[in-house]
Write a structure and sequence with these properties.
By secondary structure, the chain is an alpha/beta fold. The protein is built from ten helices and 14 strands.
Length: about 280
């Protein structure tokens, strides 16, 4: 169980800066905050005063009050492991050792059919979770193609006989694992797991073909969004696309909808509306 957020104040500053293609020197000049202090903030070594936070928020286009709350560590999700949903099995798995990510076993209790979402690491742990869930895995769904989300893909496909699906744009990220992909997922397409339906929505930026899988009560968002933060981007076009996609397809949902990210604790739409500094 997670006891802290994936991203803290320093991560948020760093992601907003890099996403807008600002160097540390650029940000220092525009905010009148010392370069050394910015480096220390991004390294978790310094929490600035409220005046400096306000200047950083203004230049970076972040919400000042939410950024101040982040600096004070004032937010943590109420249900970091999600919560039970009628008619849907969700097993959240924290996978890896030094570097952690979230994979999921999901399923339809009416039919016993299931899927694995983002088998990043620890094939044995995933297979144990599948066995304990009682689900018969029909497919492996990939929110995006980064290595930390597909590291156990080959073992899981081989053990279950299930094909993998991903957006066409992210297939090049898979390298040799692309042979495990037997189909693609497009924006607006409905993905079924037994009697449970998900609508795939494009939430690119972190990767070209990043997808979120949207159910009426839960969403698997990959690295599009983390509790109180966003996934990383490296240029202004991707940064703007990611912010817009998350706002349009995720933060517009009902406040009670659970958001299951690729890293860190689960959160909800309402909690992100209230606490995520990337949105005012």
């Amino acid at each position: 169980m997670y006891m802290q957020l994936e991203d803290e104040f320093g991560d948020i500053i760093g992601k907003a800066r890099r996403g807008q293609e600002l160097s540390v020197a650029d940000l220092a000049e525009q905010t009148n905050v010392a370069e050394d202090d910015l480096v220390r903030m991004e390294a978790y070594e310094l929490t600035p005063d409220d005046d400096s936070i306000g200047r950083l928020a203004g230049v970076l286009g972040l919400c000042p009050a939410k950024l101040q709350a982040s600096a004070a560590r004032g937010f943590f999700p109420l249900y970091p492991n999600g919560r039970i949903i009628d008619g849907l099995v969700v097993e959240m798995m924290i996978l890896g050792s030094d570097f952690l990510m979230n994979g999921y076993v999901i399923g339809c209790p009416e039919t016993g059919q299931g899927a694995v979402v983002d088998p990043g690491f620890d094939a044995e742990k995933i297979l144990r979770t599948i066995e304990s869930s009682g689900m018969e895995i029909q497919t492996v769904l990939l929110t995006h193609g980064h290595g930390d989300h597909v590291g156990a893909l080959s073992e899981i496909c081989q053990a279950t006989g299930a094909p993998a699906l991903i957006s066409e744009e992210d297939i090049p990220l898979l390298g040799g694992l692309r042979t495990k992909v037997e189909g693609t997922i497009r924006d607006g397409e409905t993905v079924t797991v037994g009697n449970v339906r998900f609508v795939a929505r494009s939430t690119p930026g972190h990767t070209e073909g990043g997808l979120s899988l949207i159910h009426e009560e839960v969403v698997f968002v990959g690295d599009a969004l983390f509790a109180g933060s966003l996934g990383g981007t490296r240029n202004r076009v991707d940064y703007d696309r990611q912010r817009a996609g998350v706002e349009e397809h995720l933060l517009s949902l009902d406040q009670s909808v659970i958001l299951y990210p690729g890293h860190g604790p689960a959160t909800t739409v309402g909690e992100e509306q209230l606490n995520n500094p990337f949105y005012s």
